[in-house]
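tokens incoming
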């Protein structure tokens, strides 16, 4: 029996008629109990060795070979877990303590360096050749950079742009990481490229809760630093669904990903750029607040405002008016509330902490509860 908390994973596929369906639904099977140190392990949700990601297939790619930083040609989506630090913890008696040391490659890391500083309840200060979307899905943990320490709670997301960083676990936590192989430049130092300025936090209308976005990067060699810690700057609404909001956090416009300060100046579309990805947070109000009041014109206006009019698969006979389909692989974490994944052939109720992998699925999200729901969506370019 694994000591890791099971992660429910819903993976979609297609039937013989090309209709979206559930391929697998259950605890993600590929668990690694002590992959990150004593009492810390991870669960692989999905791994890809090539970019764009394959959409079709009957192989469970959550079982592909584990590499901490992910395959060079692709990346991986995983959930890491740490136990909480007890009140009587004494670091002086901790057998896992490693003193700080100069940066060095970690054996077998393939794009992983560390500087020590780890213990039973702290990771090493480390750096991977990746762009990471780090999403807290249960409890909380502290992100430590060379210039600050930031407590993170459920729903907070860090866009870790190849930065040196450390994790501390006062509460224990489950955190999902979408790790994408990155371009560290000809010197392999992974320093910030360009001088784009982070966009300011938006002014949100009443009833729209901000989505926290942290951005970190290495401005100088050997120092992971904070770029920004604000509400996600790019927010889109749907007038037909009061309380609905899409918060765009980051865009990778190719593979390997670039080491840049900001990306939200790139065109806004549901689909990512070729060989790229988009990280979003989406709020869903209860369906009862809009159901029966939304028609085809409202749906078309929404998808046009999102820059993707062709993503809509609206039909009067569809199971949901906001059904959509894109040539993408989406990793979805339920952050708050309860929500239902609507497919062509079935519906799947999901709750906080559960994860869906949508492979080119015709789908929508329905909130039949009395409270708002929030999900994170990491969308990657796919291929048929």
């Amino acid at each position: 029996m694994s000591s890791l908390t099971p992660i429910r994973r819903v993976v979609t596929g297609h039937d013989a008629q090309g209709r979206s369906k559930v391929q697998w639904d259950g605890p993600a099977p590929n668990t690694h109990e002590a992959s990150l140190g004593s009492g810390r392990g991870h669960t692989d949700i999905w791994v890809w060795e090539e970019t764009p990601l394959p959409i079709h297939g009957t192989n469970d790619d959550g079982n592909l070979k584990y590499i901490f930083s992910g395959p060079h040609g692709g990346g991986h989506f995983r959930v890491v877990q740490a136990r909480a630090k007890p009140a009587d913890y004494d670091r002086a008696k901790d057998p896992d303590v490693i003193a700080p040391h100069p940066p060095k490659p970690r054996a077998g890391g393939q794009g992983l360096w560390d500087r020590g500083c780890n213990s039973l309840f702290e990771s090493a200060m480390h750096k991977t050749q990746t762009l990471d979307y780090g999403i807290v899905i249960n409890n909380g943990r502290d992100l430590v950079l060379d210039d600050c320490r930031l407590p993170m709670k459920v729903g907070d997301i860090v866009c870790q742009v190849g930065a040196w960083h450390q994790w501390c676990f006062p509460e224990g936590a489950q955190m999902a990481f979408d790790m994408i192989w990155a371009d560290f430049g000809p010197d392999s130092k992974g320093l910030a490229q360009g001088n784009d300025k982070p966009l300011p936090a938006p002014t949100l209308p009443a009833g729209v809760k901000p989505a926290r976005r942290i951005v970190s990067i290495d401005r100088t060699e050997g120092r992971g630093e904070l770029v920004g810690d604000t509400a996600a700057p790019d927010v889109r609404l749907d007038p037909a669904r009061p309380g609905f909001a899409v918060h765009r956090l980051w865009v990778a416009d190719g593979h390997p990903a670039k080491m840049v300060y900001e990306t939200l100046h790139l065109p806004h579309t549901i689909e990512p750029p070729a060989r790229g990805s988009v990280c979003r947070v989406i709020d869903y109000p209860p369906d009862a607040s809009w159901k029966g009041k939304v028609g085809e014109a409202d749906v078309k206006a929404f998808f046009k405002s999102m820059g993707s009019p062709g993503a809509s698969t609206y039909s009067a006979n569809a199971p949901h008016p906001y059904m959509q389909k894109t040539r993408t692989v989406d990793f979805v974490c339920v952050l708050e509330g309860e929500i239902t994944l609507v497919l062509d052939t079935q519906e799947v109720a999901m709750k906080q902490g559960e994860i869906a992998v949508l492979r080119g699925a015709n789908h929508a999200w329905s909130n039949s509860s009395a409270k708002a729901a929030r999900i994170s969506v990491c969308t990657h370019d796919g291929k048929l």
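note: The longest helix spans residues 296-305.
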